[in-house]
């Protein structure tokens, strides 16, 4: 099955930990499709941002249970990808923030 790169990489995650890792270890965080594997994530990031990916790590995260008054709901489960780029690579999107 051939997936579009934009459906695999859903959005960029910007957190304090992500900012520190981006500056020190050239590592970026993304929210990705739950059914995407590491190879698909690597190809999608390389095609969207035109960089060379060195390593991809993933984790499945469970949605939080939230309540408002007496009503209880649950956020969706999601998948996070931690992408490490090559030594001289960077994504220019983050330099503008």
UniProtKB/TrEMBL annotation:
The keyword DNA damage does not apply. GO terms for molecular function: rRNA binding; structural constituent of ribosome. Keywords: Ribonucleoprotein, Ribosomal protein, RNA-binding, rRNA-binding. GO terms for biological process: translation. It comes from the Bacteria. Pfam families: Ribosomal_L23. GO terms for cellular component: ribonucleoprotein complex; ribosome. One of the early assembly proteins it binds 23S rRNA. One of the proteins that surrounds the polypeptide exit tunnel on the outside of the ribosome. Forms the main docking site for trigger factor binding to the ribosome. Part of the 50S ribosomal subunit. Contacts protein L29, and trigger factor when it is bound to the ribosome. Belongs to the universal ribosomal protein uL23 family. This is Large ribosomal subunit protein uL23. The lineage of its organism: Bacteria, Candidatus Eiseniibacteriota.
């Amino acid at each position: 099955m051939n997936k579009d790169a934009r459906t695999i990489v859903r959005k960029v995650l910007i957190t304090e930990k992500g900012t520190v890792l981006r500056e020190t270890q050239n590592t970026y965080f993304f929210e990705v499709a739950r059914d995407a594997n590491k190879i698909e994530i690597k190809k999608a990031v390389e095609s969207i941002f035109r960089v060379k990916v060195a390593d991809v790590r993933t984790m499945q995260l469970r949605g939080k249970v939230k309540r408002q008054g007496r009503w209880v709901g649950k956020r969706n489960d999601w998948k996070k990808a931690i992408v490490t780029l090559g030594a001289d690579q960077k994504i220019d999107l983050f330099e503008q923030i």
